[in-house]
Design goal:
globular, 234 residues, alpha/beta, 8-stranded parallel beta sheet
């Protein structure tokens, strides 16, 4: 009886851990996840999700270019289809290109066929449009299951989480976005920001674009340097 109760308890704990892992972007239960760079040194890694978009991507690229800062852009396939010139500009500037699914759907409750379609279609669209095959994958909201990891592995992707985000999608104001990033800076941080809206092709991300020069200035004032995400992939 004790053995049975222990088995049930362990089974429940296992299911709980499995469920928690589906919504924790850096959980490694399903396979390796890149959630932070080295804690030694003072390096940071900028990433942008959900674009490209007509409201913010160009301004973000201008700010990055003016300061010589690299970034990674996790692109939604449908946004690439709508804004091909912006997608090509991202790749042409030498920024890392990542896959963020075709339609920005939450994958953790999807089966293998649906997940493969989302990832494979976005890969093909991004590659054909930009001439650059994505090297990275980030699931929308970070929600994953074992089928996600398997589909990403077929493309040789590094699966990425993030160290911190600042809820710039809530449009809290340019100064608030900048301050939230400044407060959370730490060595090796992979910073999650957004240059698009995964659910609205015209979604407003101008606050993030406007905050970016200040974010860069604040980090450099504290002795940080921005490095490409590819530094973290062997």
């Amino acid at each position: 009886m004790i053995g049975l109760e222990l088995g049930i308890g362990l089974g429940g704990a296992g299911l709980g851990a499995l469920g928690a892992c589906t919504v924790w972007p850096n959980c490694g239960l399903f396979g390796p996840v890149l959630g932070r760079g080295p804690r030694s040194g003072r390096r940071l890694y900028l990433t942008f999700d959900d674009g490209p978009s007509p409201t913010a991507t160009a301004a973000i690229l201008d700010a990055l270019g003016a300061e010589g800062v690299p970034a990674a852009f996790f692109m939604v396939g449908e946004q690439v289809r709508r804004n091909p010139e912006l997608a090509r500009r991202v790749a042409g500037a030498g920024h890392a290109v990542g896959n963020h699914t075709q339609h920005h759907v939450k994958l953790h409750l999807k089966g293998p066929s649906a997940i493969a379609a989302e990832i494979d279609t976005a890969h093909a669209v991004i590659d054909a449009t930009t001439g650059v095959a994505p090297r990275f994958f980030r699931a929308p909201h970070g929600f994953r299951n074992p089928f996600v990891q398997a589909a990403a592995r077929r493309h040789g992707y590094a699966v990425c989480g993030w160290t911190f985000g600042v809820w710039d999608t809530d449009l809290p104001g340019t100064d608030t976005i900048r301050e939230r990033v400044r407060r959370r800076l730490r060595p090796g941080a992979i910073i999650l920001l957004h240059d698009g809206d995964g659910y609205d092709a015209e979604g407003d991300r101008t606050q993030t674009a406007a905050a970016l020069p200040g974010i860069i200035a604040d980090a450099r004032a504290r002795g940080y340097e921005f490095r490409p995400l590819s530094d973290l992939v062997v």
